[in-house]
Amino acid sequence: MTMKSNRHLLIVTIYLTLIVCLVIGAPSASKGDKTVPSHLNKSNLFYRGIYKTTIQALGQDYAKGKSPIGHTKDAGDFAPEGMGAFYVFDNEQEAQDWGRCHTEGTAIKTYVVVTYQYTPKAGLKTKSFTSADNNWLSFVESNYASTTKTSPYDIVEGPISAPFRDSNGKKIKVAYTKNGKLVWQGAFITPAALKTLVVADIKQYSVASKKGSSSCIIQ
């Protein structure tokens, strides 16, 4: 074998070795990825499922081109009692599932999904949780326990929680979809935050089942 042939063989061997290393060492997408994205720094579409209602019943408050005018003052994951928040999903299917699951088994057989165009606004105070870590858990627990009725934030984003009960009473844990992923939610708390959302579309859906469903997106 000539020196030229040896050099060619060496180059081919190195090339094949690099390919094998890249294939073996390449990171693979994890089905159980325990993070959610952050959406608040750029324009986006968000979705809100409103159960047991119709487009007609919602009236002009949900007309295209309008911003939400308010929300309940109930305690939630990202805002305390007396403050409340306007919650949205980043996935249209999750909003549909939410509306369907909370409508099935009730007298009203329709629900609505509203699509919002979100546009960031400078000067708003935001908070982002990309995972359900201890900081997220402490924040969520504090909102359900708080009596301050105030929030230091305009908008908060992060994973949805799911309450459960053990021998010590009601607790908080993170909620997962049936394929093991976290569910993102955005909480728009203040009037200034609500103005960053504008209705882009609104759709009405009907449920087929007369019985309550156990197939909601969060467990």
Structural account:
- The termini are far apart.
- This protein is 24% helix and 25% strand.
- The strands form three sheets. The chain has a four-stranded mixed beta sheet. The protein has a three-stranded antiparallel beta sheet with strand order 1-3-9, with helices on one face.
- It is α+β, with helices and mostly antiparallel strands.
- It has one domain (32-206): Phosphoenolpyruvate Carboxykinase, domain 3 (Alpha-Beta Complex).
- Residues 1-25 form the signal peptide.
Question: Which properties best describe this structure?
Answer:
219 residues; alpha+beta; Phosphoenolpyruvate Carboxykinase, domain 3; 4-stranded mixed β-sheet; 3-stranded antiparallel β-sheet; 5 helices; 24% helix; 25% strand; globular
- Quaternary structure: single chain
Classify the secondary structure makeup into a structural class.
alpha+beta
Q: Under the CATH scheme, which architecture would be assigned?
A: Alpha-Beta Complex
- Major beta sheet, strand line-up: 2-8-5-4
Helix content: 10-25%
CATH topology annotation:
Phosphoenolpyruvate Carboxykinase, domain 3
The sequence of SSEs as H and E is: HEHEHEEHEEEEHE
The profile of the biggest β sheet is:
4 strands, mixed
Task: Report strand %.
Answer: 15-25%
Radius of gyration: 24 Å
**End-to-end Cα distance:** 67 Å
Tally of separate helices:
5
Q: Structurally, how many domains make up the residues?
A: 1
- Overall pLDDT level: 82
CATH class value: Alpha Beta
How many DSSP-defined strands? 9
- Unreliable spans: 1-31
Q: Based on CA inertia axes, which overall geometry fits? A: globular
Keywords: Signal
Signal peptide: 1-25
Pfam families: DUF3990 (PF13151)
InterPro entries: DUF3990
